[in-house]
Amino acid sequence: MTNPTPQADELVYTRVFEAPRELVFRCMIEPEHLTHFWGPVGVTTPLETIRVDPRPGGVFETVMVNDADGSRYPTRSIFVEVTEPERIVWTEPDNGVTTTSTFRDLGGSRTEVRIHQVNVPAAFRSPEAQAGFSTSLDRFAAYLAKLA
Amino acid sequence: MRVAQDRLDATFAALADPTRRAIVAQLARGDATVNELAAPFAMTLPGISKHLKVLERCGLISRTRQAQFRPCHLERGALDSAVSWIEENRRIWSERFDKLDEHLRDIQAGPAPADTAPAKTRGEPADD
Question: Is residue A129 assigned to a domain?
Answer without folding.
Answer: no
